[in-house]
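Entry 14. Ran structure prediction on the chain below.
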Amino acid sequence: MAKDTKVNLRSLNFYQVFLRQHTQEGTFLSLIKDLPRIKTLGMDVLYLLPIHPIGEKHRKGSVGSPYSIKDYYAVNPDFGTEADFKTLIDAAHQEGLKVMIDVVFNHTSHDAILLEQHPEWYYRKDGKLAGKVGDWWDITDLDFSHKDLWEYLIGALKKWSKLGVDGYRCDVASVVPQAFWLQARKEIKEINPDTIWLAESIHGEFCKYIRDMGFESMSDSETYEAFDILYDYDIHHDFLHYVEGKAPLNDWLKAMLRQEYTFPKNYIKLRNLENHDQERIAHWVKDHVRLLNITGLLFFLKGATLIYAGQEYGVDHKPDLFEVDKVDLSIKHIDIRNLIHRMSHLKKDSLFQVGVYHIHLQTKEAAVISYENKNSMTVGVFNVGNAKGEVTVNIPNGTYQNILYPNQVIVKDGKLILEDKPIVLFTIKQSI
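Output, structure tokens:
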């Protein structure tokens, strides 16, 4: 972990927006009208996919990937002007939302302004521009052995921080040198000491692949030294195997238990069921009751939480990265939206930041998780498998109010009967 990371970041709720797909206009100004709804959902951070101009040379699709960036110092004219972006930032701040942007420093487009100005700052293979990953043919990699490149990229971060940006989601951060990120963090801290640093850390298999080719790639532990929050791609295959029906729930839960002794005590993982690179959770989980429960479980996991726009309405189509493909934000599955609202506000309790965290493995396809301190305890029960019967819980016998729904739950002999909907119970330990 970065030495100055604050564990209260575990209570942050991120709302990811692919601006091209989010509104009919696909502009900064058109997003403003949706900010109150996003805030009411319980979100804290508006996270925007890259806002910069997209390269045209070797472009994928008709409009290109936002991760093929032409100019780090400019905004995509399709989104509006820099003044429009500033207006969006100010409006978000007025709603109580922080603004995070995606920064992509591993590579640029093949027609980037930087390539025209400093071709010597690029990685080459056999004398030709190249990338380390073969299928990323729309981009070309930077060479971080040039310290002037560091100054140029950090200068871009300084510009956006001075404009009001509150945080950075750093694309494939693990393959960019740790020393660069440490320097960037140090210099940006002078502008905004509360800047949030989120790393798109990478799957372990991908890390080994990069290293086996002779390149540098940081482990999660190394990446944590410069960042506040990391993706949970270290256990993503366990999650996918579960939702794809290839492995039991407890394999995924046990993987999360390993994180508890693999990383520093104050580690923060970004918990998400979907994002712009991954299939929608509603694509994998078709049953509505299961979807409701796994959504509740998401917010009960230790760490910050990310919702990809549309997830709150059970959208099952992942927007195309290279074409115009609007997200259906019409109001449906309102019970998922309402659950996210309740859980996102519930997560502000300090128990979720500093409480002792336990995952109680069950013999049924249900997740039981608890947090406790010397005064209080909360227990969440999530019937992600539509299971029947009882699960064990670590609270005394008695009748408890489910704070998510207007029903009471009876605990007898350390067990409770599973219900269709998620259950969250609170108790004061002095009364036990």
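The chain has a mean pLDDT of 96. Will compare against last week's run tomorrow.
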